[in-house]
């Protein structure tokens, strides 16, 4: 019976973690460039139950032969194995603001590949983002809303000297007679990236390989790819599954309490 406690409890924990991921998705439904998290549930290793016994052999000395009879498998519960972002391209929303940039995927060498803007975090390290909701700081540098510097192709901060600049669709920022290539990074497997918060990803990225097509839309933002209606439905499903496991756990608890009390009376 104790196995039932652990199985029901593991199911409740898994649904709670799935609920947390879905809640975070809904909270970021309006965050530009946000990629929805998807949880992957996996069962614990199954156990094979066998009945061990003995079989009498009709001999003079009454020998016994050990035998095993397979009863079946026992699943020991479920858990959230990992949380994987969904890197599907989000829809574009026109803002008309010159500092807003949307990175649109074109032809990529790998199905799991993806493109990102390159930025510099507060520690001076390179990070990657799909959130093109940029602005210009007091010193004239192109930065994110959180104050992270947007980098060019050589890893340098981009000086725009104001809001008056244009960005070509092939990723070049033009201002006051100079042309600066934006730092567009490519990874063939975006699932190796780790979310850091504020729309930043940590991982290993490379320059855009030959044969890759993309475009930059100035005055647009990439929407979050969260499907709010679907997420709400999944939240209700997770809540119902949590309740079901909770009722199973309560039933086991009542059975255990009844067994203990009746055994106590008999004694």
Automatic annotation (TrEMBL):
**Localisation per UniProt entry:** Bacterial flagellum basal body
Keywords annotated in UniProt:
Bacterial flagellum, Cell projection, Cilium, Flagellum
Principal location listed in the UniProt entry = other
Signal peptide location in the record? none
The chain positions of domain Flagellar basal body rod protein N-terminal read 5-35
Q: Which family does it belong to?
A: Belongs to the flagella basal body rod proteins family.
Q: Which PANTHER family match?
A: FLAGELLAR BASAL-BODY ROD PROTEIN FLGG, FLAGELLAR PROTEIN
Q: Under what name is this protein listed?
A: Flagellar hook-basal body protein
What species does this protein belong to? Virgibacillus halodenitrificans (Bacillus halodenitrificans)
Q: What is the lineage of its organism?
A: Bacteria, Bacillati, Bacillota, Bacilli, Bacillales
């Amino acid at each position: 019976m104790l196995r039932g406690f652990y199985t029901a409890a593991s199911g409740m924990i898994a649904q709670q973690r799935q609920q947390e991921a879905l809640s975070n998705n809904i909270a970021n439904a309006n965050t530009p460039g946000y990629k929805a998290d998807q949880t992957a549930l996996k069962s614990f290793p199954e156990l094979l139950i066998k009945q061990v016994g003995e079989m009498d052999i009709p001999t003079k000395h009454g020998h016994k032969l050990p035998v095993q009879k397979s009863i079946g498998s026992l699943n020991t519960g479920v858990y959230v194995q990992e949380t994987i972002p969904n890197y599907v391209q989000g829809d574009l929303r026109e803002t008309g603001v010159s500092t807003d940039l949307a990175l649109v995927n074109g032809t990529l060498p790998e199905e799991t590949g993806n493109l990102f803007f390159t930025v510099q975090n507060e520690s001076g390290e390179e990070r990657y983002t799909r959130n093109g909701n940029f602005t210009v700081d007091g010193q004239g540098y192109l930065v994110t809303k959180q104050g992270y510097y947007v980098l060019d192709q050589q890893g340098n901060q981009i000086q725009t000297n104001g809001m008056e600049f244009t960005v070509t669709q092939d990723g070049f920022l033009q201002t006051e007679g100079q042309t600066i290539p934006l730092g567009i990074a490519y990874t063939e497997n975006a699932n190796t990236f780790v979310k850091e918060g504020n729309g930043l990803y940590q991982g290993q990225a490379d320059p855009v390989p030959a044969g890759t097509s993309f475009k930059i839309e100035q005055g647009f933002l990439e929407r979050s790819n969260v499907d709010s209606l679907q997420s709400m439905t999944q939240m209700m499903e997770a809540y119902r599954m949590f309740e079901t496991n909770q009722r199973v756990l309560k039933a086991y608890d009542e059975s255990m309490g009844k067994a203990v009390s009746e055994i106590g009376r008999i004694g």
